[in-house]
């Protein structure tokens, strides 16, 4: 009995060793294939090049936590034109309040007129559509102000799925500017960045969840921005539509009030008072 049993144990041990070797080899190959964050951005681009949606509209329920009062809940109306134009109407669009954002600039509008401009953009823009629609070098340039170390690339797991992490020193580093990309779908699932890039700005831990397929791409329909363990801002999307005609003037802050809002051209109901 012992003579017949020992070879069985050896065979099992050999099979396990072979399996571990194969897994290690596969992991090593992934690491060698993608050697930097730039390589990852290129793979994201190539996965959907020419097929990602070019325009997008959605309604956003925004919940902002307040330290000493009830959360503020409002409705925002958002429209995007690839690769780098985002319009947000805060509250009822008829009030004329919102912003036009690019990857490097923000135009603040109140009552239909520009009241302020800044040289700071929106870090979501390079990832929501731009990386899939523009040259990779341009996306790298748009991310430069966030000081992500593109030479740092590692594999990790996020919500049970393999991800690439760019910018972190190691698995314990949650302070360096970084972004996490789902290794299968090539979409952003997490980023840790200071949304306001001024001196001493705190790092936000941003989670992108509840992805839905859209045209030939994907849309995260829930975004939560954490300050430590506190959900500082929660965004929940509805009524999303892609690849619909949008007037280019919608994304020109100087013409904010001179063009019919997209909610009207899409035949949506007139927005109600957004404050709850």
Give an overview of the whole structure.
The protein has helices spanning 2-33, 37-48, 125-133, 136-143, 262-265, and strands at residues 55-64, 72-81, 85-90, 98-101, 106-110, 113-118, 153-158, 161-166, 178-182, 188-193, 204-214, 217-227, 230-242. With 276 residues, the protein is α+β, with helices and mostly antiparallel strands. The longest helix is centred in the N-terminal third of the chain and has 32 residues, at 2-33. Helix 2 (37-48) crosses helix 4 (136-143). The termini are far apart. It is globular. The chain has a 13-stranded antiparallel sheet with strand order 6-5-4-3-2-1-13-12-11-10-9-8-7, with helices on one face. It has five helices and 13 strands.
Alpha-carbon distance between the two ends: 76 Å
Number of strands: 13
Q: For the largest beta sheet, what order do the strands appear in spatially?
A: 6-5-4-3-2-1-13-12-11-10-9-8-7
- H/E element sequence: HHEEEEEEHHEEEEEEEH
For the residues shown, what is the average pLDDT? 87
In terms of DSSP E residues, the strand content is: 35-45%
Q: What spatial form do the alpha-carbon principal axes imply?
A: globular
Report helical residue fraction: 10-25%
* Secondary structural class: alpha+beta
Annotation keywords:
36% strand, 276 residues, disordered N terminus, single chain, 13-stranded antiparallel β-sheet, alpha+beta, 13 strands
In a nutshell, what does this entry contain?
With 276 residues, the protein is α+β, with helices and mostly antiparallel strands. The chain has helices at 2-33, 37-48, 125-133, 136-143, 262-265, and strands at residues 55-64, 72-81, 85-90, 98-101, 106-110, 113-118, 153-158, 161-166, 178-182, 188-193, 204-214, 217-227, 230-242. The termini are far apart.
């Amino acid at each position: 009995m012992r003579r017949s049993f020992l070879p069985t144990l050896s065979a099992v041990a050999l099979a396990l060793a072979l399996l571990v070797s194969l897994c290690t080899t596969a992991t090593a190959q992934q690491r060698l294939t993608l050697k930097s964050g730039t390589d990852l951005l290129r793979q994201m681009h190539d996965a959907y090049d020419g097929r990602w949606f070019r325009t997008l509209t959605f309604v956003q329920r925004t919940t902002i936590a307040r330290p000493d009062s009830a959360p503020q809940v409002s409705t925002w109306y958002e429209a995007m034109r690839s690769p780098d134009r985002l319009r947000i109407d805060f509250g009822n669009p008829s009030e004329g309040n919102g912003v036009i954002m690019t990857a490097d600039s923000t135009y603040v509008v109140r009552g239909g007129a520009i009241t302020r401009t800044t040289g700071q953009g929106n870090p979501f823009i390079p990832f929501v559509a731009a990386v899939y629609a523009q040259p990779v070098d341009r996306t790298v340039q748009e991310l430069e102000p966030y000081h992500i170390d593109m030479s740092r690339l590692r594999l990790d797991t996020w919500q049970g799925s393999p991800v690439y992490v760019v910018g972190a020193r190691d698995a314990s580093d949650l302070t360096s500017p970084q972004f996490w990309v789902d290794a299968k779908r090539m979409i952003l699932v997490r980023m840790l960045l200071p949304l306001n890039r001024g001196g001493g700005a705190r790092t936000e831990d941003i989670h992108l969840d509840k992805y839905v397929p859209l045209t030939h791409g994907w849309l995260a329909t829930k975004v939560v921005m954490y300050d430590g363990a506190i959900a500082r801002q929660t965004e929940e999307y509805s009524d999303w539509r892609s690849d619909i005609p949008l007037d280019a003037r919608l994304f020109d802050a100087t013409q904010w009030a001179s063009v019919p809002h997209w909610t009207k051209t899409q035949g949506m109901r007139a927005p109600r008072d957004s404050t709850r």
